[in-house]
Recover the amino acids of this structure.
């Protein structure tokens, strides 16, 4: 490892959220991620930084993008990656989260990546294990690596975060992506607008330092970045809007609504996308405006950086015995 890279330090044992991280700490994560973007475009993508380290992906809530991205990140760094499928795990058979933590802890993993349907579950688990824990998304609370990859995508395209006007549009109430992005973007000096029906914005949202709009064109006026969110119907236990058709009419991103944003405004979406619900296919597939595929690429780089920086704070693995 080069001297400059080896001096980089992230002072936390876990990555449970963006809230509470300083601008310098966020910058360390983004700068380290940037170094992996180029590496991942080379024919030889593999390093041995995590040789001897074990990473367990415990996904109690399904996710193709995040789990695959963490798996790829761990393997490209030379680590041993184990995926625990919830369909066949002991949790499905009634084991408590604490029992699962104790079982996994006995296996001496170095990093545990956890996705869980309940807010706060990942923090609870982190208090019961000896390894580093990364939050892969917990309930409606936070999804820190998604916010980091979104920020890296924006920085990659625009060269900055400070001073940008970013609109986050859609189901804010149920979105951990929105929460993590709000924390990161406001910390880094961007101005954040939330655009959604009244039923899909928390009543106390403005205390987070954002401006709330209930009209797409008013909210998108002169925006630099337009970040769309999917409707999380699996978390909705009552009617938040009359119909999908009406939702798309008022809050789906179309070229007409996008016309009031900056001419070079970047369109983003964390995925999975509901085409014709929160975004029109033409806009989603516009190579010049959409950064959706780039977000996926940045995700692997960000997760490599997080795995590397957190394992640096762990004791060195014992030498191999031949």
């Amino acid at each position: 490892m080069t001297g400059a890279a080896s001096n980089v330090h992230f002072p936390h044992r876990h990555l449970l959220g963006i809230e509470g991280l300083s601008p310098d700490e966020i910058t360390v994560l983004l700068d380290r991620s940037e170094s992996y973007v180029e590496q991942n475009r080379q024919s030889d993508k593999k390093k041995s930084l995590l040789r001897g380290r074990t990473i367990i992906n415990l996904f109690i809530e399904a996710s193709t993008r995040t789990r695959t991205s963490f798996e790829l990140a761990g393997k490209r760094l030379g680590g041993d990656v184990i995926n625990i499928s919830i369909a066949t795990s002991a949790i499905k058979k009634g084991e408590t989260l604490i029992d699962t933590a104790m079982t996994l802890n006995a296996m001496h993993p170095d990093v545990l990546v956890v996705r869980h349907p309940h807010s706060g579950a990942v923090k609870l688990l982190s208090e019961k294990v000896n390894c580093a824990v990364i939050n892969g998304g917990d309930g409606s609370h936070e999804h820190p690596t998604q916010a980091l990859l979104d920020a890296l995508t924006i920085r990659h395209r625009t060269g900055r975060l400070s001073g940008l006007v970013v609109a986050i549009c859609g189901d804010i109430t149920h979105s951990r992506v929105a929460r993590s992005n709000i924390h990161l973007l406001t910390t880094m000096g961007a101005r954040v607008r939330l655009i959604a029906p009244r039923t899909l914005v928390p009543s106390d949202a403005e205390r987070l330092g954002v401006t709330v709009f209930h009209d797409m064109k008013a909210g998108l006026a002169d925006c630099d970045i337009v970040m769309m969110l999917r409707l999380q119907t699996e978390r909705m236990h009552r009617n938040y809007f009359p119909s999908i058709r009406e939702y798309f009419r008022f809050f789906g991103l179309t070229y007409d609504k996008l016309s009031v944003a900056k001419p070079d405004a970047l369109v983003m979406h964390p995925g999975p996308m509901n085409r014709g619900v929160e975004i029109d296919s033409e806009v989603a597939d516009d190579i010049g405006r959409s950064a959706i595929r780039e977000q996926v690429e940045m995700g692997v780089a960000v997760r490599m950086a997080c795995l590397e920086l957190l394992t640096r704070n762990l004791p060195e693995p014992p030498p191999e015995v031949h």
